[in-house]
Write a structure and sequence with these properties.
The structure is a single chain. The chain is mainly alpha-helical. It is 76% helix and 0% strand. It is elongated and about 50 Å long.
Length: 135
């Protein structure tokens, strides 16, 4: 429990405001997948990928702290999830449905988040290994 408390404290105190807003949008958008998961197997796969990425983020945080490598958990699980989500677009069962509309938004939000995570991973690999400083 202490790990989660430290993680969320670091997120709140060390992240710029725009990233906190992005995290809220991401959380709100992806939480809708749970509702769609009641009736759509595709949404359950998205929830699984999302939860695995979050779990891996906690594992990475426990090993490396609040450093730029923290997004590797998202990269490992969300990249295939994002490709899966994109592959659903245009299929008969998704086109012109509320799920399909939500999927476009989720792809965009997850894509932006992943792009930032890839950028942070690149910076980490280039030597930026210090803890992310507070605001």
């Amino acid at each position: 429990m202490e790990l989660f408390e430290r993680f969320f404290e670091d997120v709140l105190t060390r992240s710029p405001e725009w990233k906190l807003i992005l995290l809220q949008v991401l959380g709100g958008t992806l939480s809708i997948a749970v509702l769609f998961g009641l009736v759509r197997h595709e949404a359950r796969a998205i929830v699984f990928g999302t939860m695995m990425g979050l779990a891996m983020t906690f594992v990475v945080y426990s090993q490396f702290g609040f450093t730029r490598i923290i997004g590797v958990g998202q990269i490992l699980f969300w990249t295939p999830t994002l490709f899966y989500m994109a592959s659903l677009q245009g299929t008969v069962t998704v086109s012109r449905t509320w799920f399909g509309r939500w999927l476009w938004i989720a792809i965009a939000v997850m894509g932006v988040t992943l792009a930032l995570s890839y950028g942070d991973l690149f910076r980490y690999m280039m030597g930026d290994r210090l803890e992310i400083a507070g605001l």
